[in-house]
Design brief:
mainly alpha; elongated
Length: 289
């Protein structure tokens, strides 16, 4: 695994830039308690009435304050952490489900493959966003974990389809046939022979599912159906629209979450492009040309 990461880091400039941006954003989210202490000077900068309302960006409040006097720089870091939590949980769950379905279907084949492939196709054609709207509207107290579960249920088929195709191509390779001859179990063949070759594609599936979860949460929050008890980037955009911040000159409340989401989108896509350039020979030849 470490060798693969080292190979990627040295072979793709886009991968380097994407990982660097993502790392900076994750660190920014993780140190938000320290940022809150630094900005608050002993008081909670996220408390209602902590400062004057609608302060413009200044040396004390880099992004100003909102209508309740809360520091927007701290709010952005806090919202990023909540969004990344949803992304991590939803991305991990959907990737695990997708990987299990893909490996079982692709390796076993036959009736099992037909059943799992049909199930995957059914989930792919289901309009997920209207169902998420319905579930969020009728569940009274939606938590971040509840939203993560709902997003994971509808995002695993994309990873499953991609990984299954690669498993189908790998299961007939000579080294897999040799593993069968040496009486290795199906479990051992999958985890010792197939899994290491598909780690980049699993990583791409996780990144795509995590990013999709973030933007799905933003969509729910913008229309007022997300977990209102937790501040995330989508809720900040909802407040910006509801309060009409652009007309008030309080543009940071709208611009800050948009910029962070754009950086997340750019980072994940650069990582995916870097993986494709390294592990897809045709794309690598095109990029080299």
């Amino acid at each position: 695994m470490l060798r693969s990461v080292t190979k990627l880091w040295g072979a793709s400039r886009k991968f380097q830039i994407g990982v660097t941006i993502l790392f900076v954003l994750i660190v920014f989210a993780l140190i938000h308690p320290w940022i809150a202490d630094l900005v608050g000077h002993g008081q909670d900068p996220m408390a209602i009435g902590a400062y004057q309302a609608w302060e413009v960006p200044n040396t004390d409040h880099w992004l100003g304050t909102d209508r309740y006097g809360r520091d927007l720089f701290v709010m952005t870091a806090t919202g990023l952490e909540a969004s990344l939590e949803v992304a991590a949980v939803a991305g991990l769950l959907s990737t695990v489900i997708g990987v299990v379905v893909a490996f079982v279907a692709g390796y076993k084949g036959g009736t099992i493959d037909g059943f799992l492939n049909t199930t995957t196709d059914m989930f792919l054609v289901v309009p997920s966003f209207p169902l998420l709207l319905t579930l969020s509207a009728y569940v009274r107290s939606v938590s971040l974990f509840d939203v993560s579960l709902m997003l994971a249920v509808f995002s695993w088929p994309f990873a499953a389809r991609t990984i299954r195709a690669h498993v189908l191509s790998l299961r007939s390779r000579p080294y897999v046939e040799l593993a069968r001859v040496t009486n290795l179990s199906d479990f051992e063949i999958i985890f010792q022979e197939l899994m290491p070759n598909l780690l980049p594609y699993i990583g791409v599936g996780f990144a795509s599912a995590a990013l999709g979860a973030i933007f799905a949460l933003v969509g729910l929050e913008v229309i007022g159906l997300g977990p209102a008890s937790v501040i995330d980037l989508g809720l900040m955009i909802n407040w910006a629209i509801t309060w009409g911040v652009l007309s008030l000159g309080a543009w940071p409340l709208f611009v800050a979450p948009i910029v962070v989401l754009s950086l997340l989108f750019m980072a994940v896509n650069l990582i995916n492009i870097g993986l494709e350039e390294v592990y897809n020979p045709r794309l690598r030849q095109t990029a080299g040309a």
